[in-house]
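Dear colleague,

As promised, here are the two records you asked about, laid out in our usual form so they can be pasted straight into your sheet.

NAME FIELD: protein one
SEQUENCE, THEN STRUCTURE:
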Amino acid sequence: MRPTTARSLAALSLAAPVAILGCAGEGQPVISTPSRDRVSGSAIVAISDGDMAITMFDDGFLFGPDGSGAMRTDDLLTVIGLPLPEPGDREQRTRFGSARVSSSVIGPPRNLAVDAQGRFALVLSTRGHASRDAVSWEDLSPGGRLTLVDLRDSFGRGPRISATLDVGPAATTVALSRDGSLAVVLSGSEKVVQFISTDGATLARVGEAALIGMPATGAQPTCVAISPDGATLGVTVVGANVVAFYEIVKGQGAYGLRPFGDPVRVGDFPYTGAFSPSGGHFFTTNLGWDRSQDRYLVSAPNTTVSMIRVAGADAEDPAHRVVATAGAGQNGEGIAVSPRGDLVAIGNLRRSFLRETDPAFTLGGTLQLLRVDETAGTLTSGPEVEGPAGPQGLSFDATGDHLLVTDFERGVVQIWRVDRSQDGPPALRYTGLRVGVGDGAHNVAIIP
């Protein structure tokens, strides 16, 4: 049988010899790491959805095959301080904090945004808590809550909810500007974005804008991203199978949008998108889903990844255009771009969400690195590597030398090393290290 909870040390047994420092807060074990596997940055932030069993993606039951609430756990936001202690170093204590913060795995894995200065996190809940009588995901209350979590004393009093805002049940994804002053929430079915200002302690709605230029029927925006300079939005649109770009316009304390070039045609069902650190390119995963079919996740084709050159005022070609397309594995929801801009990581769910007795079941998902050359406009796929079940949440560390990956089933964040050997393409090597963050781990971020 599969492990049923992330809160047992047995479920978090390690594939490499390291030390377990014990448990802190909510019973989550924190694992120390040798120097060569040191994750760079000041902290790891992860969110987990305690209502969902991984098989929910196929059979619809929340807590397991029979819908029993016996395995119900809390939604959590977890913060783990870096660096983790060296094995055997009893003088150094691991810094750890957690709080109950509502989140949902339903929707693209873009419902966590973390301030680069480490002051706060934003968590968008696309579905509400399961009631005591809830059995299937359809029984969940509507979501639409944006939660501001103060991280400044995560290892003292712990992370603390300082503000919440109702953003409507159509909300699907959230993005945060690099300076942490402006958040954008996408309401997909309504084809609008909301602009929300924050000072790290409060949330205030400062505008709403329609995503004009969309087809009247059949098009549904799924994911929003803000360019590094804060000037542009990129929006993936299923149905129309395009990425649309908008200029952010500010005037008299309010925000709006202006279309920026024509929408760009990409592959079928562009689900999740991200800008390069330079802002010069935009990447999207095209899942090929046909939601008119039963069990479309099982029959989905392999994912493709599109690389779009984003037009600039000084560009010789003023139009956005796809400059490269590369292959990935099946159900590649997760995407992350390295801080160097040289790699894109993809997390492919495959069919790891099925029951083990299903003939189509795969033991886990896979991970891939794609090599990026922004100057040449090329994107080159690397091989798939066996990974955890449901690897939606991906984040490179501050230097791009490690990749953090959520394991939805086991409720952990795995640590993978990026090998940039001169003798071959970049490769991912599992360090054997993983940190418990709560059942249903589905998104992760690094505070630099």
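NAME FIELD: protein two
SEQUENCE, THEN STRUCTURE:
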Amino acid sequence: MSQEVSNELANQVVAMAKAARAASYPIAALPRDRKDAVLHRIAELLNERRSEIREANQKDIDAGQAQGLSTAMLDRLRLNDARIDQMMEGLRQVAALPDPVGEEIERLQPPQGLDIRKVRVPIGVIGIIYESRPNVTIDCAALCLKSGNACILRGGKEAFHSNQVLAALIRDALLDLNLPADAVALIPTTDRAAMQVLLKQDAFIHCIIPRGGHALIRFVVENSSIPVIKHYTGVCSLYVDQKANLDQSVQIAENAKCQRPGVCNAIENLILHREVLESHGLAIAKRLVERGVELRVDAPLQSLLQSAGLPCKPVCEADYAEEYLDLILSVKVVDSVEQAIHFINTYGSGHSDAIVTEDAKVAEQFLNGVDGATVYWNASTRFTDGFEFGFGAEIGISTDRLHARGPMGLRELCTYKFLIFGKGEIR
């Protein structure tokens, strides 16, 4: 790419960032009915422009097939009528959610007589960098608009044509309602240089949210001068305590590993208390092997499984920190809940971890001791999801600590400010 083109591209991205910041002010001030109207208008346009969307999507599918993308990747790219219907329903669901903007979080009345109110306000401009699925363009725009934010989107090259059509549709919906179209912008190139420019626009963009693989997130973190809310990996664990219910243990382990193994809230590690190896350990292993799971186990369990005729492989330390996203599970044997907590805090990613036990004190120790965004007692880690939490939708799952953690819904796309009401007080 020539220096002249680079400068042109950089100027284009900077102009988009400035325009998004200018648009963010009127968007932040919109009442709920106008924000909801935009979401419903986007849904109407999705329905009206189905053929255009499918035509653009087919270009991406054809290109993906020519590049040798896997069947799973091609499926993630595909926008058929059913998925367009799902996007429309998702927009309506977000519109039906309460408006977080202006919500009072706390009220303070200090001795000097001031009335201080802490209220939710939009973050401002959010940059979202994502891969593969074109429906993310609609999901992210909907959540940002509902929470009063402008957004700049940078989709993956695999869905370039689909994303272009969807972003144009969103801008048309904004214009139809006399709102600034620059409130939702899509970087119109797959050139990585554009992303590098975007990540330096801290004067206009207030937050970056990357959604994708580890390599993408690492690139964003290393190159951004804007605060990043990231979800690195989902190295999730299930601990079966010595006082765990047998049936619950088997059902939760099976669900957490097998229901959908390729997602971030599926478990990658199973931790067994030594006292339940023969009872719970064998029963869980048998069920998982029946479901096609490859077990990688440490020595105390290996001989037991081999004696029972169950296939397994020896585990190595690196396996415990691996996000398999597949029907593979590492197994660790411990002597106490303290060891289980230490194991999770050492090898886990702070995403989702669970304990199965009938001992409330042990459960409390686990819930308080595990350093993670979501920690479960007698439930599957598969519930870490904005919809399952009752948020209606999510923009991602944060493994960070500032400012959001876990599934990020509308409230997590807000910050806050203090409104102070006085009666002439001076200091």
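A couple of things worth noting about protein two: The mean pLDDT is 94. Residues 3-28 form the longest helix (26 residues).

Best,
R.
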